[in-house]
Design goal:
By secondary structure, the protein is of the alpha/beta class. Helix content is 35%, strand content 25%. It has helices spanning 51-59, 98-102, 104-108, 113-126, 142-155, 172-189, 200-206, 237-254, and strands at residues 2-14, 24-36, 40-44, 66-71, 74-75, 83-86, 160-164, 192-197, 209-213, 220-225. The structure holds adenosine-5'-triphosphate (ATP). This is Aliphatic sulfonates import ATP-binding protein SsuB. InterPro entries: AAA+_ATPase, ABC_transporter-like_ATP-bd, ABC_transporter_ATP-bind, P-loop_NTPase.
Amino acid sequence: MTLITIDHVSRLFNDPRDRKGNTTVKALDDISLSVGRNEFLCLLGPSGCGKSTLLNMIAGFDKPSSGTVSVGGQVVTAPGSDRGFVFQQPTLMPWLTVWENVAFHLTMRGMDKRESREKAQRFIDMVRLTGFENHFPSELSGGMNQRVGIARALLMNPEVILMDEPFGALDEQTKMEMHAELVRIWRESQSTIVFVTHGIDESLALGTHVAVMSARPGRIRELLAIDLPRPRDATSPQFNDYKRHILQMLRPEAAVPV
Ligand SMILES: Nc1ncnc2c1ncn2[C@@H]1O[C@H](COP(=O)(O)OP(=O)(O)OP(=O)(O)O)[C@@H](O)[C@H]1O
């Protein structure tokens, strides 16, 4: 069943180099895409192809210049609690503990401390931070802080989790561990994920689908359904067949001057 529909979406920005605002930059050009419930879609493409712009429009942080984005049949006009967002940096409050960060949205809504603490625990356990509830972000590793950000997004029980290169700053080993954790969390929470990355391996490690985007103006070159068993083996011939296919799609892009 379709949960997210991106229907002929284009996005023009004023060219920041033109102070008078007479020229525009086309970041996205006529994107149409559907994401089914419980799918894990990776948006993959070179830097500047508009991945974050598209994700921000699903989140309701930005609006299309033309076309529409709908989630659950409703046209997106603003952020909403049906969509959780995990940023590249975890954006935690350094003066709050792990559980206070996870429960942030609940306490903001006026829920009492005991109840919000209880609600937060389930998600702290889900991201395997049990025992770290009273630690501060500065006492945790980058990967652990990112888990706090994921738990905070999950707590609102969103239909969709939107993730903008959340593991970009992590080392390879931690990134691989986080991939396994995220797949487990995705299955356990039965959520739908849209995940932005420029890593081919990352997209193939995670996605049920990979939307390969072209360099600016961003278009969908191909939507691939990834038919690989989990846990995914990055050394398997099938994994490398997908990788070769994507590389071939992206290769001519490298030659296009930006
Ligand atoms: N607010 C803005 N004003 C002007 N141009 C913008 C704005 N936001 C994005 N752009 C331009 O739109 C294009 C797409 O940007 P976007 O950040 O969505 O790309 P991306 O694929 O996420 O890149 P990266 O992987 O480097 O984060 C870029 O050329 C960028 O310069």
